[in-house]
# Entry
Amino acid sequence: MDVPTARIAIGRLFRSVLEFLDYYGVVDVEKRIPEETKAIFSVLSDEYQFKLHDALKMADDVEKANPIDPMDPEEDPVRMDCEECGNHTMVVNKESRTGYRCTFCENEYGDELPASCTICGAHMTSGDLENWSGEHGMEYRCYYCSGRYAADRDRD
# Structure
């Protein structure tokens, strides 16, 4: 982990712990932390909040620039939750290999991302598809095109 990533992770962790303890009222941890240490955690927590705020704003901008057609229920979502960082910052991105990129952690992968079978074109999530290396690069195949259906049928 590099220094900026560690700073963000510590800030997020500290903020989450404070929110948890505040919500459940278990311990007032802020009274038990020395002032000089509290200042460091406060700075790290603020850095995390600023970065998250910027990422959410960028995701809002992408969502506004790519409106969804309400008449097309099959259209892929423009914005989703990122499975890596847990924020609602995974947005469409033409430069990404998957077509999506998180504006916070820059993750491009996830099992819930929309994808299509390379063979038959069936629309589903990437977690439902199997990865195959083909002669034209990576292929994504559904349950039927991967041969699992036939294998399962023959096994029974």
The beta strands are 79-80, 90-92, 100-102, 114-116, 123-125, 130-134, 137-141. Residues 133 and 139 are 6 Å apart (CA to CA). The longest helix spans residues 35-65.
